[in-house]
Amino acid sequence: MSDVQKVLFLLGSARRGGNTELLARSAAEHLPADAEQTWIHMDDLQLPAMVDTRIIGGGTYPSPIGDERALLTATLDATDVVIVSPLYWYNLTSRLKLYFELWMGWMLLPEVQFKDRMRGKKLWLITTMSDEPAEEADFLIGILQHSAGYARMRWAGALVAVGGTRMGRVLENENALLRAKTFFSSGVESEQSLTETDAAIVAGGGHIAVPTKPGLFHGAAHHVEE
Fold first, then answer.
1. How far is the C-alpha of 80 from the C-alpha of 102, rounded, in Å?
2. Is the Cβ–Cβ distance between 221 and 162 less than 8 Å?
3. How do residues 124-166 score in pLDDT, each as one tens digit?
């Protein structure tokens, strides 16, 4: 069995090259040299709407084809899944919500053995926001922590930083870029309680870093946008 780290970045922003993607690419530069990186923008995929077939469909789910099959294969092949989404209405973008909805269908396919094969993989979040308290991302973080637990994955941490609405603004956030350098090497291996907090407040780079949970790196936050 290969020990090579295979990192799948799933981009869900409504625009290309936005602040969240820029922050993710900055963090990715500090992955081990031999780590394999796969970048997928959800807008490049033609995915079906999730239909709950547990009752109406007799508990069967159609075998994925096309882009859905490619996304499933990429997910199962990865050791790490990195969700790259700006904070939209305190949550993921709709593109990435659909990704997690598709998990339910994949779990209904006995030949895929989705939960067994997801066990032990790491789930990460990289997000940017603007003009809001950093804690506004906690709801999203909690959702992904629960999702990781349900799929028997390991919650690895979240990188949360100021993005603003202007393209490239995150690159002016020195604290966020500093956190990005060590993000993939200092994430948490979680069985952490959702209620655990770290009240330390550290000033840096002209911004305030507020790590409110293990592995969460909060930069100054502004209102909901990327």
1. 18
2. yes
3. 999 998 766 678 899 999 999 999 999 999 999 999 987 667 7
**What is the rounded CA–CA span in Å between residue 208 and residue 23?**
17
Chain mean position to CA 84: 5
| Helix spans in the chain (H) | 19-28, 66-77, 94-107, 114-118, 138-150, 174-186
Domains and their CATH numbers in the chain: 6-218 (3.40.50.360)
Neighbour tally for 150: CB within 10 Å = 13
Q: Does the predicted TM-score (pTM) go above 0.85?
A: no
Closest CA to 61 of 115, 116, 97, 107: 107
Transcribe 94-109 into DSSP letters. Answer: HHHHHHHHHHHHHHT-
